[in-house]
Q: What sequence folds into this?
């Protein structure tokens, strides 16, 4: 299937597409979150399997990355470029014991304009989604450590910033054994977020465990 057709399916039938296709998203420029142009690319990688439906079925593997750049896994089959809201990963500074400034840590998704949101692979991080009150505040935070103190600082960074007073609609967390791909799609004024959870295999491939949907 042509890549533009795959992109259309991803945008219009997101949950089903993510249940039957492996996708890893790669980060944008180091300048932080913002509007960027991305492409969807096919790869020749094998070894990905979906467990959705109770059976292990092989699925194709795709990568998504900034337009105009090169990715080593791309086999040259690219979609057209498309504009997204890219959410960059932010960190806790172990020296200053503070999160990066909220202005660059938390990103407000509008109720108009661009309709796709992406972020890089969730790997031991937390993706927070603010309460549904029109525009949505989101953030991709990497914990300072796996210690109780580190997890507490992550909780403070997520709730204190995204919640704007403590209200958080959803937290998508991953570990070293289960990673995630998060895509947001706006339909009208409303955002829906899809989290594809997968367990990477050593060397290559992985198992898609399912897709969770957050409104």
A:
């Amino acid at each position: 299937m042509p890549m533009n057709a795959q992109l259309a399916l991803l945008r219009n039938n997101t949950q089903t597409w993510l249940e039957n296709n492996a996708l890893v998203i790669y980060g944008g420029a180091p300048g932080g979150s913002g509007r960027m142009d991305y492409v969807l690319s096919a790869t020749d990688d094998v070894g990905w399997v979906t467990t959705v439906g109770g059976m292990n079925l092989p699925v194709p593997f795709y990568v998504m990355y900034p337009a105009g750049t090169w990715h080593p896994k791309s086999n040259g089959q690219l979609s057209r470029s498309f504009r997204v809201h890219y959410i960059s990963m932010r960190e806790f500074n172990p020296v200053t014991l503070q999160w990066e400034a909220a202005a660059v840590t938390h990103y407000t998704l509008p109720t108009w304009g661009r309709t796709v949101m992406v972020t890089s692979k969730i790997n031991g991080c937390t993706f927070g989604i603010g309460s549904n009150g029109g525009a949505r505040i989101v953030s991709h935070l990497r914990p300072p450590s796996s210690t109780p103190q580190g997890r507490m600082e992550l909780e403070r960074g997520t709730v204190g910033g995204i919640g704007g007073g403590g209200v958080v609609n959803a937290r998508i967390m991953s570990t070293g054994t289960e990673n995630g791909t998060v895509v947001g799609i706006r339909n009208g004024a409303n955002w829906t977020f899809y989290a594809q959870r997968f367990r990477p295999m050593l060397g290559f491939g992985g198992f898609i465990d399912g897709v969770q949907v957050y409104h």
Summary: The CA atoms of residues 13 and 36 lie 22 Å apart. The mean pLDDT is 85. The longest strand covers residues 190-200. The chain is about 15% helix and 45% strand.
